[in-house]
């Protein structure tokens, strides 16, 4: 009896997982995969566990973010480097990003705040030429898949569904990971 109940639960979970995955990464042939986690911070932490950057590696981060995102970076002995944003667009200034990059820079985190989104293509052109990975923190910017799914040029786009969010599921996060076997496995 219990095995049948467990089998039913597993089948329900598999069906639910397939539905969520199909919504976020509808094309199984694409280079995108979906990851469900407790929070954006837990995904951010997992990213650094997998990457295992050497201590002293610099992580560019838009200057306004929650403190825990900086704490995760510091827990790994990495150096968060804040990048100024334009107060009218909430986007970082390209000149600030260029000025902040050093040979120790490995990642740039864009935090899309207050529901505002912007095209990261101008930044991506520069960052990719420097070998710097792009991560998007869209914890405050979920407005539906038909509106914004993040940039295809980002290595990972993280969405949050905490209870204080406009579109909530009480808690949890969903991340879209692109072109990255190491992060998916």
Care to describe what's here?
By secondary structure, the chain is an alpha/beta fold. The chain has a single domain (32-184), classed as Type I PLP-dependent aspartate aminotransferase-like (Major domain) (Aspartate Aminotransferase, domain 2). The protein is 35% helix and 21% strand. It contains six helices and seven strands, in the order H-E-H-E-H-E-H-E-H-E-E-E-H. The chain has helices spanning 2-24, 40-51, 67-75, 94-100, 121-129, 181-184; strands at 32-37, 58-62, 79-83, 105-111, 133-137, 156-160, 173-178. Strands 1-7-6-5-4-2-3 form a seven-stranded mixed β-sheet. Strand 4 (105-111), helix 5 (121-129) and strand 5 (133-137) form a beta-alpha-beta unit. Helix 2 (40-51) runs parallel beside helix 3. The radius of gyration is 17 Å and the shape is globular. Mean pLDDT is 79; it is low at 1-6.
Number of helices: 6
Q: Which CATH class is shown?
A: Alpha Beta
| Cα shape | globular
* Rounded average pLDDT: 79
**CATH superfamily label:** Type I PLP-dependent aspartate aminotransferase-like (Major domain)
Indicate the structural class: alpha/beta
Task: Tag the structure with descriptive keywords.
alpha/beta, Aspartate Aminotransferase, domain 2, 7-stranded mixed beta sheet, 6 helices, 7 strands, globular, disordered N terminus
Q: Could you give the topology of this structure?
A:
Layout (H helix, E strand, L loop, with lengths): L1 H23 L7 E6 L2 H12 L6 E5 L4 H9 L3 E5 L10 H7 L4 E7 L9 H9 L3 E5 L18 E5 L12 E6 L2 H4 L1
Parallel strand pairs: 2-3, 2-4, 4-5, 5-6
Antiparallel strand pairs: 1-7, 6-7
Helix pairs in contact: 2-3
